[in-house]
Amino acid sequence: MVASPPLPPGRHVELRGRGRTFVREANGPPGAPALLLLHGWTVNADINWFSSFTALSRHFRVVAMDFRGHGRGIRSRRFRLDDCADDAAALVEVLGLGPVVAVGYSMGGALAQLLWLRHPGSVAGLVLCATSRVFAEAKGERRYFSALGALALVSRAAPAPVRRWAVSRLDRRPADDCSLDAWLAEELHRNDWTAVLEAAAALGRFDSSPWTGEIDVPTSVVVTTDDRSVLPRRQLALADSIPGATVHRVDGGHHSCVVDPDRFVPVLVEACRAAAQPRPAPAPAPG
Prior knowledge:
Layout lengths: L9 E6 L3 E8 L7 E5 L6 H5 L3 H5 L3 E5 L15 H14 L5 E6 L1 H12 L4 E7 L9 H19 L2 H9 L11 H9 L4 H13 L13 E6 L7 H10 L4 E5 L5 H4 L1 H15 L12
Parallel strand pairs: 3-4, 3-5, 5-6, 6-7, 7-8
Antiparallel strand pairs: 1-2, 2-4
Helix pairs in contact: 3-4, 5-8
């Protein structure tokens, strides 16, 4: 059996009328603000946040969920970012979290933005990590995301045994391997890869630039300064577009949350603490 890293307790949660997802929860100090952790594309909550749970739970109540098609998230006939944002809002309601600080990584950052747009009453603050307002600006990027969407259509049309065979080709670890790499491979094997491909196409169409200037909650932007997947200039453009957003830099690449937690996690904690502080009330108009 593959050994997993230390993780908080997990359970399945039924979202009324939507389906069943999987969450992990760490209670944190009494009365602590709640964080809702939103993972990136292709991974699940465990992979994205396993190195962050302990440090965050010293200051916050922490809840992390698997999104549609990822890990043990809801299985559905199609993947839409809006549906994932609505799932997150439903989870906030079902667990009675009240408004949360939504912490999104890469694709999860897009979902955090959509959660604020579609369900502003569910969001007290935002922490946007290694993410952007848009993921496909250049022609080559648009072609890449469109191609993944086309593969999703092929995958949907393929018989189930063919899909299972294709996914099995991804799993090449030795049966007795108990390393972290083996655990990561086992977790990735939980994905519905057709939905993951559809998620890529949806991410390629995402564009929050028309409305990020309206975000009115405390916001921290965690910039991974050596990122080749979401370019730092795009991360900084996101921060510049949000009134009052603070910038928190991590000297690392797109996968820093997994491969370089000693650098990433302290900055994440700092960013979450900043976003959990209420904005000061505006000064009264003179006269």
